[in-house]
UniProtKB/TrEMBL annotation, chain A:
Intervals holding WD repeats: 195-237
Family from the record: Belongs to the WD repeat EIPR1 family.
Database matches in InterPro entries: Beta-prop_EIPR1-like, EIPR1, WD40/YVTN_repeat-like_dom_sf, WD40_repeat_CS, WD40_repeat_dom_sf, WD40_rpt
Protein name according to UniProt: EIPR1-like beta-propeller domain-containing protein
From TrEMBL, chain B:
Any single Pfam family the record assigns to this protein: Sec5
Protein's organism: Tegillarca granosa (Malaysian cockle)
Database matches in InterPro entries: EXOC2/Sec5_N_dom, Vps51
Major subcellular site: Golgi
Listed transmembrane segments: none
Domain Exocyst complex component EXOC2/Sec5 N-terminal, first and last residues per copy: 51-289
Superkingdom of this protein's organism: Eukaryota
Name by which UniProt lists this protein: Vacuolar protein sorting-associated protein 51 homolog
Length: 314, 719
């Protein structure tokens, strides 16, 4: 399927476990931006979409709530000002902004929901700060509970972050420049660091949902690396099949043998896209379906080939 | 009591006021007054069922009670709560009563304060009049004392003058004493202090006497200083002091320079002689034993020791001389530019002369090292030598010894390589096993396996494989910073290719190696491009006047890579270019396409240009950005340029641009367009990629106003 506007943000609707649903945010400076709510019917092979208007500005990053399927956060560029803000939205038909977390001093980059949904915490990354919010759904307001900064020479900028779904969700990992850092959110202190994880900028990382110390990362040096956070000196495995920047890496939630960095995975190469692919995500409903989004606004919903599927299962 | 009750009622009413915000504020103030810390009082617990907590929710609490407790317990709870409420009620009443009392006493205090202030005001007025009287008196007193003060000032002036005169009269005696005590510096200081005055009042007979005396003494002093200066044993510090004093006494600086340098020369010559002796020793020449004390010097040193010796002896001495010379002569002669230049020239001549000798020695020594010794020591020695030379350069900025030093180092390296080649040859030919006069060499069953197995497999192949694995190691190191330079990688890749091309089929594919060297080269360019796009504030940039420096740098780098790769690889196939494909016509066609697009925008600005780009994409074939690289110059460069431009594109898409930011990108891409086509196999490709960059920039631009193509042309011409 195709949108008219360029797009960069993609997320699966995490709280939805019955249907294959994805959310796509468009990125256009001058035209009105939209959030597309895409419903893929597996049996009929039909795609339905709902469009919500996102008036605030172009969307750089999106994340759907793990508790309430109607909640999502967006990080957007405030119109005509080049300021990055984060906002929390509720998804009924009228689609209204319930509140926005204005961090005027920082440029909000990512907002991530607590992975298991048992607490109402939100994690935000802004410039060189990690922020934790406590969300009160009733009064639809969020309170800043903790924050910490990253100090080093130059002006470090976080490129991405991820909750660790293990250890009762008390750890997060962030990446800046070519290092990966692990943090304990109870004390907000750094617990481990992988220096020079990649030759150049680290673009994305993800935790293995089934093995508690395993972490995947990708970067501008065209490599995908797998790490054990207990031993940060050597990667477990390096994949260098890519020929340009690797923008995103995601573990499949059900079968950790699979991961799908964009452009071309290890399992299979997907070449439907004409423009750069910036985001991929697995569906939370069907473990064999994932979506990828390219800059020209084309969303492709892919299915793991049957042969591969049986190879993994059997 | 009645009054108190009414007050209490009003208070209660107030508490039930509608505005919850005001209520909280008042609560806060009350709490502050009674010293209750808000945080400790239940603020710590978030339990909504804590009846004393700040987060207490009655409905939840009630629900919980009803759910959890039995009827009797509920009854108990109720009575307990009722008694508690009663107790609280009476507490509140007492509080209100106390407050009332305090209020009344406060009113009393305020009234009393009012009276007191009145009294205080009167007293202040009185104080002011008194102060005025005091000021007047003090003015009177200072007026009467004025005359006396002037007299005192005059007297003290006379006293000062007399003191000075006394100093002058005592000067000759004092100078003598100073010279006797060998404190020359204080003597000079005294003399310089008095010199001007003596000179001024020369015509008075008494002063003239003093002047003559002083001059005589100073003459003596000069003689002494010169003697000390010429003495061989005096330390550099003493020397420096001497020169300092002599200069203060206005001795001619030039002569001093000369003398100083010749003196220093003696010392340094000794160091050089030591080096010379070492070399002779190394060459095995006989040297007559001079004295027993120098016996330890006659044992030959290895190269590292030799260089150490040279550094510590010769170089540090010469550095010391230069530093003290700088201090003494160069940094102070500012008043006379000419003299300064002469002094500097003298120093440079002196140093150059000595350095040539030193280099000569070092070179001879290094050449001696050609046949023996192991590499690590030699390399360490050369490294130390080179580092010390760089320190020298810092000290004397006008000269450049490092070039000569590097020459020596590179010559040594060349010698080394030559030596290895030689020894390799020797090893080959030294296979005396095959010599015909050895009897077992003739036996065929020995000869066959020896030739194929031992020589071929064991020697040649093993050697080549070793080379190959070394190459690979080099390439693996690319991830870490500061490993092998790209030029070396290129050469190695060529070497492997040549091996592959010849009959040696043992080698695996050299493609991997090439791939690695290729990534290595492009990394530099890419990071530069990325940083340049990311760090700039494109939204508020000014109107473009120039091509950005980083673009020029990219072109320069590309040209350099082109030259390097061109030396090693064949030209490679190029797509047919139209015969008159000059830069002119090309830029013309480019600007033409720009104009077309611009026209479209002007015509219907509301149409999103994605339509345009899509149509364009339909017609232009899809670009394989990551196609495999072949072994040819054009192919390698095309690969590099394609990836660079792709990076540029991705960076641009991450930013937001203002009007001038867009125009700057236009200028930059046009500039790239003008220069990049000559490197690639298919110039269309560059054009498409650059067009895409501009398109993406337009997408990411708040105020897309394109620049006139003619203006772009002009700017690029100028750049």
């Amino acid at each position: 399927m195709e949108d008219e506007a360029p797009a960069r943000a993609l997320t699966s609707q995490s709280a939805e476990t019955d249907q294959i649903r994805f959310l796509v945010g468009t990125q256009s400076l001058r035209a009105e931006n939209q959030v597309h709510h895409i419903d893929f019917d597996d049996e009929m092979n039909i795609i339905n979409k709902n469009v919500f208007v996102h008036r605030e500005g172009e969307i750089w990053h999106m994340s759907a709530s793990t508790i309430d399927k109607n909640l999502l956060t967006t990080c957007y560029n405030k119109k005509s000002k080049a300021e990055m803000k984060a906002a929390l939205w509720r998804l009924p038909s009228d689609f209204d902004s319930s509140q926005s977390d204005d961090q005027s001093s920082h440029q909000a980059l990512h907002v991530l929901w607590h992975p298991t949904g048992d607490s109402k915490s939100l994690l935000g990354l802004a410039d060189n700060h990690i922020l934790l919010w406590e969300l009160d759904t009733a009064s639809s307001s969020a309170k800043l509970t903790a924050s910490t900064g990253l100090e080093s020479k130059g002006q470090p900028k976080m490129t991405c972050g991820r909750w660790n779904p293990h250890h009762n969700c008390t750890q997060i990992a962030t990446a800046n420049d070519n290092c990966i850092r692990g943090w304990d959110i109870r004390s907000m202190e750094q617990v481990y660091v992988i220096e020079n994880a990649h030759g150049q900028l680290v673009r994305d990382l993800d935790f293995n949902p089934n093995k508690q110390y395993y972490l995947a990362s990708c970067g501008d040096d065209c490599k995908v690396k797998f790490w054990d956070t207990r031993n940060t000196t050597e990667p477990l495995k390096v994949l260098s099949e890519h020929s340009h920047w690797v923008w995103s890496v995601k573990y499949n939630h059900f079968h950790d043998q699979m991961e799908d960095p964009p452009k071309d995975g290890v399992i299979a190469t997907y070449e439907e896209h004409e423009d750069s692919v910036y985001a991929v995500d697995w569906s939370t409903a069907d473990p064999w379906v994932f979506a990828s989004l390219s800059y020209d606004g084309r969303l492709v919903i892919n299915r793991v080939p049957r042969a591969e599927k049986y190879k993994i299962l059997l | 009591m009645g009054c108190c009750l009414i007050f209490g009622l009003i208070f209660c009413y107030d508490l039930d006021d509608v505005d919850p915000d005001a209520k909280r504020r008042r609560h806060g103030m009350l709490k502050m007054y009674y010293g209750i810390d808000e945080e400790t009082e239940g603020g710590a617990t978030l339990d909504p069922c804590d009846i004393n907590g700040a987060h207490f929710r009655p409905d939840m609490y009630l629900g919980k009670l009803i759910k959890e407790k039995s009827l009797t317990e509920l009854m108990d709870e109720e009575s307990k709560t009722v008694t508690q409420i009663r107790a609280l009620d009476s507490d509140m009443q007492t509080l209100v009563y106390e407050n009332y009392n305090k209020f009344i006493s406060a009113t009393d205090t305020i009234r009393k304060m009012k009276n007191d202030f009145k009294k205080m005001e009167d007293e202040m007025d009185h104080l002011a009049t008194n102060m005025a009287a005091i000021t007047e008196f003090s003015a009177n007193i200072s007026g009467t004392l004025q005359d006396r003060r002037q007299q005192i000032t005059k007297l003290s002036g006379v006293h000062f003058l007399l003191k000075k005169l006394q100093f002058l009269f005592e000067l000759p005696a004092r100078l003598k004493k100073c010279i006797e005590m060998k404190s020359y510096s204080s003597a000079v200081r005294y003399y310089i202090k008095a010199k001007r005055i003596l000179h001024q009042y020369q015509h008075m007979p008494s002063f003239q006497g003093i002047n003559e005396d002083c001059n005589r003494i100073i003459q003596e002093l000069c003689e002494k200083l010169r003697e000390q200066f010429k003495e061989k044993e005096s330390t550099p510090k003493q020397l420096a002091e001497c020169v300092d004093l002599l200069l203060q006494l206005e001795e001619p600086a030039e002569v001093l320079c000369e003398e100083f340098l010749s003196h220093a020369r003696h010392k340094i010559d000794e160091d050089l002689q030591l080096l010379d002796r070492q070399i002779k020793l190394q060459m095995g020449e006989e040297i007559e034993q001079e004295s027993a004390a120098q016996a330890y010097l006659t044992t030959p040193m290895d190269i590292l020791e030799f260089v150490d010796n040279g550094c510590n002896g010769f170089l540090s001495n010469i550095c010391l001389v230069i530093a003290s010379y700088n201090d003494m002569f160069l940094n102070r002669l500012q008043e006379d530019e000419n003299l300064d230049a002469i002094a500097l020239k003298k120093l440079v001549n002196f140093v150059n002369d000595l350095m040539v000798q030193y280099f000569n020695y070092v070179q001879r020594r290094v050449q001696l090292e050609k046949e023996t010794g192991d590499n690590t020591i030699l390399v360490r020695a050369l490294d130390r030598f080179h580092r010390r030379l760089q320190a020298m350069n810092k000290l004397l900025p006008d000269t450049d010894f490092s070039r000569a030093g590097t020459d020596i180092v590179s010559k040594a390296a060349r010698d080394r390589v030559g030596h290895y080649l030689h020894s390799l040859k020797q090893h080959f030919s030294g296979k005396a096993f095959t010599a015909s006069e050895i009897t077992f060499a003739m036996k065929p069953y020995f000869r066959g396996p020896f030739c194929t197995q031992d020589v071929r497999e064991g020697l040649v192949v093993a050697f080549i494989q070793h080379i190959y694995s070394t190459c690979e190691e080099f390439c693996e190191g690319t991830g870490e910073k500061g490993s092998a330079p790209p030029a070396l990688l290129l050469i190695l890749s060529r070497l492997c290719l040549d091996f592959e091309g010849s009959t040696i089929s043992y080698l695996r594919n050299a493609a991997l190696l090439k791939e690695n060297s290729f990534t290595r080269i492009k990394t530099f360019t890419l990071q530069m491009l990325r940083k340049s796009v990311e760090t700039r504030d494109w939204l508020n940039t000014i109107e473009p006047r120039n091509v950005r420096a980083v673009m020029k740098r990219v072109i320069e780098d590309t040209t350099a890579i082109d030259a390097q790769v061109g030396q090693l690889y064949e030209e490679g196939a190029r797509k047919e270019r139209s015969s008159d494909s000059s830069r002119r016509t090309h830029s013309y066609s480019y600007s033409l396409s720009q104009q077309q697009r611009k026209g479209n925008w002007n015509f219907s600005p509301s149409i999103d240009n994605s339509l345009m780009s899509n149509i364009q994409k339909l017609f232009s074939e899809r670009i394989e950005i990551f196609s495999a690289v072949e072994f040819s110059k054009v192919s390698v460069l095309t690969g590099i340029i394609k990836i660079s431009l792709k990076t540029f594109l991705e960076c641009v898409r991450l930013r937001t641009f203002g009007k001038y930011g867009l125009q700057q990108i236009q200028v930059d891409t046009h500039y790239l367009q003008l220069y990049l086509w000559r490197f690639v196999s298919d110039e269309n490709l560059v054009q498409v990629l650059l067009d895409e960059i501009v398109c993406s920039t337009v997408h990411r631009c708040l105020d897309p106003v394109m620049m006139e193509p003619s203006v772009i042309d002009l700017i690029c011409e100028r750049g």
